[in-house]
Structure prediction request, 260 residues.
Amino acid sequence: MRRRTAIGAVLLLALTAAGCASGPAADRATGGTQRGPAGTVTVFAAASLQQTFTTLGRDFERAHPGTTVRFSFGGSSDLVAQVREGAPADVLASADQASTDALGADLLAGRPRVFATNTLEIAVAPGNPLHVSDLADLTASDVQLVTCAVPVPCGAATAAVERATGVDLHPVSEEQSVTDVLGKVTSGQADAGIVYRTDVQGAGDDVVGVPFAAAADAVNTYPISVLRDAADPATARAFMASVLSPAGQRVLAAAGFGTP
Prediction:
């Protein structure tokens, strides 16, 4: 009887140990299935990415049931400032490398990856009533021009174009995001605005785009990175991977973005 009792106790201990060894830790130790993306990922993204990233967010949620992608869109410099001040974000997608570099390595989890490029274009009212055909036309006294402020990537690119061409622009307003510039044109508050070609394409019939050769002197690169304080690094990395994937690149290309 004592021998049977001892054997039963040993078996009970073995079963208990096996139960304690189950779950994610055991899966990792034995090569089991890892947990897929789950929960909420908060993405800070440049204003020019609003349409495409909204689509990419929906695609990510469909591909990974149980996930939620939350966005905060704005000027890249403003988003960087918010991250530096401790705003809760998991992923940053900015409209230029300089904005991401301003965070410093201590706030980034790994190396940022460039996922798209973009160039400037002039946006004017439908029909182009002032017959704007090039950058120099924006200096005419009867043209109410709006641009991005220099700290914003589209503003820095505009300044680079001015230096390259020698054209001295005098905007009536400098905005904190490219979507604000576009809004001034579509609402009739401005005759022209310097935005990205993707903004012109996304606006449809609300504006007409006027390409100009000097835009090639200021091509913006868009980096994406996971932030060091991400609440769920695995899900944040999965979203970043989805942007860099062939499917994500097709969404961006359809909106007019260039390849990295």
Q: What stands out?
A: The mean pLDDT is 88.
